[in-house]
Design a protein that fits this description.
By secondary structure, the protein is α/β, with parallel strands linked by helices. The chain is 58% helix and 8% strand. The chain is built from 48 helices and 18 strands. The strands form four sheets. The protein has a seven-stranded mixed sheet, sandwiched between helices. Helix 36 runs antiparallel to helix 37. The protein is elongated.
Amino acid sequence: MPLRQLFPGQGVPDDGAKVDIIAVHGLNPRIKSDSDHAWDTWRTPAGPDGRLWLRHDLPECAPESRIFLYEYNATAVYGKDRDTFIGKANELLEAIRVERDGVESRPIIFLCHSMGGLLVKQALINAHGDAKHTPTKLATSGIAFFATPHNGGDPKLVSLGGVVAKVARAAGFQKGDDVLETLKKGSIFSDIMQEQWRHQLPNYDIISFWGSLDNIVPKESTQLGLPSDRENVVKLNADHRKVCKFGSSQTDQDNLKLVRKNINDIYKKALNKNLRPLQVDTYRPVNQPIISDNELPSKGPCHYIPLPRNTQFTGRDAILDKLKSKLFIQRECQKLAIVGLGGIGKTQVVLQLAYWVKETQRDYSVFWVQALSHGSFDQDYTEITRRLGIQINPNDANPKDSVRRFLESERAGKWLLIVDNADDIEVVFGKDGDQNGVHKFLPENDRGLVLYTTRSRQVAVWAVKNEVIDLKQLDHDEAAALLKKAVIQPSMCADKERVTRLLEELCYIPLAITHAVAYLNQNQLPIRKYLDLLRGTEEDLVRIMTREFHDINRYDDSQNAIATTWIVSFEKIAKSDPLAARLLSFISCIEPKAIPQPLLPVTDELKGDIESAIGRLCGYSFLTRRGESDIFDMHALVHLGTRIWVRKRGKPRETMTDAVRHLKAVFPSDDKDNRGLWREYLPHALRALENSKGYHMQERYDLFNSVGLCLDADRRFKEAIQALEEAQKGFWSILGNDFKQSNQSGGRTKATRLFKRAVRVRWKALARRKDHDLLESGYNLASAGNNELAQKLISTLHRISSAYLDNRQIKKAIALSERVVAIRRQIFAEEDQERLASEHELARAYLDDGQFKKAILIIEHVVAIERKTLAEEDHGRITSEHVLARAFLNDKQVEKATALLEHVVAIEKKTLAEEDYRRLASEHMLACAFLNDKQVEKATALLEHVVAIEKKTLAEEDYGRLTSEHELARAYLEGENRQVQKAISILEHVVAIEKKTLAEEDDSRLTSEHMLARAYLECENRQVQKAISILEHVVAIEKKTLAEEDDSRLVSEHMLARAYLECENKQVQKAISILEHVVAVEKRLDMSDEDRLVSQDLLTEAYGMR
């Protein structure tokens, strides 16, 4: 597949040629040979007698050139797979290499018709990665595309594969032909259409010819979309086939005129690309002669890049493409800044770009300065001066002015200046307007580009206005590739799940990954072990993250430890913005995610500065705002950095104390209107409380108390109990200290000993009846010394007892409630709300324990008082009436219960939202009353409503939700249409959850299991064996926990006996044994004849089955 030389002709010397022009045709028509099509693409009429404008007309506009025509089998190129396409592109490169032996640097211009342009593009892509053919790529100066389909035109409608398939059909190929089917897929051009070709675009001068009569390749598909100075789009009045051949007609001659002129333009540019000398502006002292041309510095562009190429660099394609497009392809700006967190990889991205510019933008010089300090900037400018050979003008006030003026001169040509680590605004722009910043030494002209990297958004905006690019952490694939490329043993990355966990721990931050790799490589440590260290103690984590390591791709004097690199910025912030530093200190004590702005500490006099302080932290990428909200996030590793920084400043205890005090001051009450606020604050308060272990301060215990109350209101009862218990322990401890300090006389020694004992046994002792006297005695003594705190302690104990009850720790709840009631009865009047609240909770506890008479006695008294003192719609009164109705219901006073609950529900419908748990609880209880009154349809409708709301608002394992679902299943079982299967489905779910959340002997769990067994017995397919298995378990537990005359136990035993009689193998003797016991107990209890007859009849039936 040779190159055919058209000009100069045979026997004519071509020593004077300065440019090579190569014409490449597209897809062969089916009826033509390779050779005929190669020539006929460019000549008209077809055949040896046709006019070949490449030979007859082109030399006039490109006289100092060699012109070639490339012959190849296009059907073979485009009719197979991608590998074949790539291989054929390499064949083109090899033909060029052979023909240009000895003149490799001579500029090349390609002329490409249709799909021949795709082959040329693939060839140049191949040449980029092949040292043998790189000279061809570097020599390529211009390309003229004639109706080449670069894309689908409209990406929403047509793919590239669709366009080139139209080209194939126009060439005579039909459905089923390999060529057509292959081209239709478009996959052989995938790389061209994506990244690799776009990276080369700035290297070439492009002409894109399109045919106004072309109905195969649309105009949009023929354009690359470059700026007009890089791509000239030219319309020719021709169809797809005739767009690159020109006969004698006026239209053809007009087209040829346009073609010749445009090719002449890129031919001239090619002539000028014979690597001209870099023109250096050499400054001379006054009266010194001008330096002659032969004394100028060496030829070619100048490059000063102080860091070596990063061979481990991976990813970041999108950001690099954006930089190349903005600076070199679209040329949208001349100044640009990359902003990002320290360690996020800003320097490595611009380092990659610098080497790309050096290799591909041959007319650009690249200079690099580090703006970390005045000293580093001066050092780099000195090196640039030396490399350029600039003689410093002694009249310049500062030698750096000479460098600036030279780069602003025309002799400097095109250049890219990278200003790295421009983090300190005083270094870059000077302090307080003193004009001593390095910014004034940075050049500006229309041929130069300046690219900053900075951690400071303020620096970026001052330097480049809105031309700012944010650099974020790596995505997962990029981070995994970096890790695998950097470790000595790639096999350690085989466990993808473990790799993912490691990358998550490292927040996908490049420096953190590099740091981890250095540790893994040096210590030959598996990833598993490193993960253990990361999840170890705080001390382990600090030691790892502050450990320095050597990295040749970073500056010798830079901080390579991931935490240390941020501490440098923290210190800068502390010097310039005390409020921002205070925010950092506070955030070090709380959760790093979802930080609400109102939570942050700020005094009244500094409120106006809060936005600026937050903006500074966001500017350094230490905080990230969530969209338009006032919620902020911090990387977990940055959060670790703040904790290390606080330690290094010697203020960890002071910082934590201030944080706890502030949280206590701003934490909301458990009023339901504050629910959204406390849910935002809770994670942060819990983190601070956990990290402040060992801090003995009342504000901490007050915060525990507030947190516990809100957790309780949120029905997170286990967590509420833990928090409230911590609060009451602290209150006891403080009261003990206060009491000891006030007890200076020796006459109260006995009392002191008693109180000390009360403090020692704390809450555990309070829950045991034998030690109840300690609570009252301790309280009485404590209240004498600090009555306010003593009252708070009793309130906390009251809420603990309530949480115990809601968490189904009924015995503990009763024990604690009884003592709280005893104390409050001593100190409060009968109508006092705190006393009534304690009595209310005690009644509720008795109800859950089955002590209905005790409950009714207490709650009737509470309701009577509240009806005198509280309004009808008062929530406290309504809640007590709810409990009284529940007590009536459990005592089988159904009519009383129903009437009272209907009243309660009516009030709550007016005063509470539909999803309010208190209203739902009352509706639930009213439905239970309806069930007990045989009003099953009413009960079912109400329970379906309650369950639907609770599924949206309550957790799956919430006890209230489970109880409602249980009662709905009961309603399905007892209704006239008996929806047994629905009941089973609900009960199976309820029992499964209760097995995880409730103790084996819990009455609610046993009740649900009992009802599920009943449903199994009553369903159509009668799952008797399942019922027996459940009932045997229920009965075994109830024998341990319930008296033999307990009604629930008797019902379970009766049902188990029935199941034994109904199973396939009829366990009659077991049934008889159980029923004889049940009947005997019922006789002793003097139960109603109806209840006794049911068991007696079943026993008689069992006898008959023997």
